[in-house]
Specification:
This protein is an alpha+beta fold. The protein has a single domain, classed as Alpha-D-Glucose-1,6-Bisphosphate, Chain A, domain 4. It contains three helices and eight strands. The longest helix is centred in the last third of the chain and has 22 residues.
Length: 152
């Protein structure tokens, strides 16, 4: 199962990256993933960092604890994790074009329980959460003023 979505954000890459990479601030803008915190590793996004957040793909909340396996700041982040017999990999690709950022989100799920997810409409619900995450990231990034110069 693969969930793919892309959004264009009207903000410089430095602002979008800063908003995305400051996980301890996610609760201030991110309505799709709640209670995000670093479990181990660096306080920023770097390979080897483990973190947790809570999503609600069904009626009940689910805590996930992925590990960042790749981080190229401002370009790409990949995290992986597993829960309930499903292994997930989430790739985020950032691309700046003419002062705007195109952000691609690709999530892939594998494992023996993926078929059950289809029965419960989980792909549709996870896609909705991805769209929500990207939309709120867009809003938060675009709300930053041009006088706030964030650097990678």
């Amino acid at each position: 199962m693969v969930i793919k979505e892309e959004i264009e954000i009207n903000a410089p890459l430095s602002v979008v990256w800063r908003t995305f990479s400051q996980m301890e601030d996610w609760d201030s803008w991110n309505t799709a993933c709640r209670s995000c915190c670093i479990i181990s590793g660096d306080e920023d996004l770097s390979a080897g960092t483990c973190f947790s957040f809570v999503i609600r793909p069904l009626a009940f909340p689910m805590k996930v604890q992925p590990k960042i396996v790749k981080c190229d700041p401002g370009r790409e982040v990949v995290w992986e994790g597993g829960k309930l017999g499903i292994h997930a990999s989430h790739t985020w690709k950032f691309r700046e074009e003419e002062g705007k950022v195109k952000l691609l989100s690709v999530e892939s799920f594998q494992g023996p329980m993926v078929w059950m997810g289809h029965l419960l409409s989980v792909p549709k619900r996870l896609h909705r959460l991805t769209v929500e995450f990207l939309s709120t990231l867009k809003q938060a990034s675009e709300a930053c003023t041009s006088t706030q110069a964030w650097r990678l």
